[in-house]
Write a structure and sequence with these properties.
The chain is mainly α. The protein contains six helices and no strands.
């Protein structure tokens, strides 16, 4: 399989989007923690409708990253790569910003993802390591061929050769 050249515009655009989005997610987390002072997590004191809103916000964030990936990549493998690269960088930036702001993302009781039960929440170091691995896998997939199938660009764009 022949891979295309590195398109630095996609890498830099995805990185810029991931950095801004990671900062935004961390700011939302800081606002939520500030709203519940003391050692109590905001998820323990929040009403049910607010927890449901937070879950929908997390899904909306994934949809935004997926939409960015669909517009950025050409082939499906490249789109998957942009999605993974952006998602991995977003997670790393999220944890870096939280650790630089409040010292660490929070304590052992932190719920980073409301889809997982509290007992299934891994330590932050494991999450950052996995996010880096996801970003590396995504960066590798972003090198996928520009078009799937065909020997030359025209054939790949217009489909199989026409019979003469």
């Amino acid at each position: 399989m022949r891979y295309g050249r590195i398109n630095w515009v996609i890498y830099m655009g995805a990185a810029a989007f991931a950095i801004a989005f990671g900062y935004l997610e961390a700011a939302v987390g800081l606002y939520a923690d500030a709203a519940a002072p003391g050692d109590v997590q905001w998820t323990e004191r929040a009403p049910g409708w607010l927890l449901a809103t937070e879950q929908v916000r997390q899904v909306a964030g994934l949809v935004m990253v997926a939409g960015f990936a669909l517009f950025s990549g050409r082939a499906p493998a490249q789109q998957a790569g942009v999605f993974l690269y952006t998602l991995g960088l977003r997670c790393v930036i999220y944890y870096v910003f939280l650790s630089s702001t409040v010292g660490q993302p929070s304590g052992q009781d932190t719920m980073g993802c409301l889809f997982l039960p509290l007992r299934a929440q891994p330590p932050e170091g494991v999450v950052v390591f996995l996010a880096v691995m996801v970003a590396i896998l995504g960066a590798r997939l972003m090198l996928a061929p520009r078009y799937s199938g065909g020997n030359n660009e025209r054939q790949a764009i217009h489909g199989a050769r026409r019979r003469r």
